[in-house]
Amino acid sequence: MSLNSKCSSCAAGEYMDHFAEWLRSAGYRRRPAQLLLRGAAHLSQWGSIRKVRIDQIDQPALDSFARHLATCACTHVFYGRDRYNLEGARRFVEHLQHRGILPPAEVKSRPLPVLVEAFSDWMRNHRGATESTIAQYVQIAKEFLADVGTDTGQYDATVVRKFILAKMGRTGQSRAKSVANSIRMFLRFLSTYAYCSSDLIGAVPRIAHWRLSSLPRYISTQDIERLVGACNPSTAGGARDRAIILLLARLALRARDVRELRFQDIDWSNARLRVAGKGRSETRLPLPQDAGDAILHYWQNFRPRVNDDHVFLRIRPPFGPLPSSGPISSLVGRALRRTGIQAPSMGAHLLRHSSATAMLRHGSSLEVIGAVLRHQSVESTAHYAKVDWMLLRSVAQPWPGNGGSSC
After folding, report:
1. Same domain as 183, residue 65
2. Which of 84, 155, 218, 384 is catalytic?
3. Are residues 21 and 65 in the same domain?
4. Greater model confidence, 131 or 241
5. Calpha distance 131→198 (Å, rounded)
């Protein structure tokens, strides 16, 4: 007797065929899918014994089922304490929620204060900020309001500086800069709508930091090629990672650019790539031959056949877009460790810096590099000039009193 025929006798039997099809479309292989179906059936039998209907399953019920699994002594055919039992139950509930049989899971989050909600919308609609940046700024704005109150007409320089300096005393320099930047932006929002004076923006202290004082972190062109070669194109993970690393290294893309890349962004006829950068700006970049070939190889041979237009997907089910930029930095780090390259950092941004440095050393102007990197300020691009001593000599000004010599 097949698992599905056994499930037909349980309380959730009428939903099992749909659940099995959902698992198949999500990319689960036969054996893992059977185990997840078993967990769903176990949940159904547990609910029948406790008089809990399928359409009454909620998070407390799932928690109770999880406690049951720890000491399961059931005698029905779906018994067991295997981890797939709980995972199958959770996936089954997600499936029922998606179909509308169960209500969506409640997101337990406290509502934002009205000012913070408006600040969030302003950042999104008028500043073009990303959701991760908004989340960071909103959290600090909430802390600010909780500390100093919501009567914005009473804010003064003392109140603003006291809050920021107190935060600085409990955090490192990086966190202190985030607090200062967030409060400066929040005050700019408030002053835009006349909640407070624009003079308060100047009350935010500047954190002592010499911008772009460090050297850019990069690896050599030879090490880049070793990194590309460390990805096995005959496996799903290797084919995907190789295409990603080539895009990062050849076009100096950010991890977020690669994660959000969709098929409609690729103009195959003209070998061009559309990238949406910071502030919602769009740029079209030439698609190198090797990167394009790598994308096609991954797409045609290994990319899961799911209804999602992101170019790069998870390599394990349930298939879908990468949840964040983090996995892209992680796969770069894994490739670096496999090759034994001694790199100054282990994330995706290392390849962006390496690409810019290589372009500079091959004679590209700072204007060209800035266009490829989509820098809004020439100062950001000038950061890379510090790796080229001859270029620095050409722009160095004579030191007064040494006869006009530049060095």
Report:
1. no
2. 384
3. yes
4. 241
5. 26
Is 98 considered catalytic here? no
Are 312 and 322 spatial neighbours (Cβ–Cβ below 8 Å)? yes
Question: Measuring CA to CA, which residue among 92, 88, 94, 144 is closest to residue 116?
Answer: 144
Residues 22, 163, single domain; the answer is no
280 labelled catalytic: no
SS3 61: helix
Give the CA count within 13 Å in the CB-facing half-sphere of 75: 1
Q: Which of 240, 242, 250, 254 is catalytic?
A: 254
Is residue 209, in this structure, part of any structural domain at all?
A: no
User: Is 155 an annotated catalytic residue?
Assistant: no
Q: Are 189 and 308 found together in one domain?
A: no
156: domain CATH number is 1.10.150.130
Domain that holds residue 186: 114-203
The one catalytic residue in 38, 167, 256, 352 is 352
- Pairing between β-strand 266-267 and β-strand 282-286 as defined by DSSP bridges: unpaired
297 is catalytic: no
Is 68 labeled as catalytic in the residue annotation?
no
Q: How far apart are CA 19 and CA 95, in angstroms?
A: 7
- Shared domain check, 252 and 132: no
Q: How many CB atoms lie within 10 A of CB 290?
A: 14
Q: How confident is the model at residue 323 (pLDDT cuts 50, 70, 90)?
A: confident
Is 109 domain-assigned?
Answer: no
Catalytic residue, candidates 184, 240, 242, 375: 375
Considering 177, 278, 297, 334, which one is annotated as catalytic?
Answer: 278
Catalytic residue among 349, 353, 374, 383: 349
- Confidence label for 353 from pLDDT (cuts 50, 70 and 90): confident
Which of 118-122, 148-152, 168-172 shows the lowest mean pLDDT across its residues? 168-172
306 pLDDT tier (thresholds 50, 70, 90): confident
Both 134 and 264 in one domain: the answer is no
Query: Which pLDDT band holds residue 382 (cuts at 50, 70, 90)?
Result: low
278 is catalytic: yes
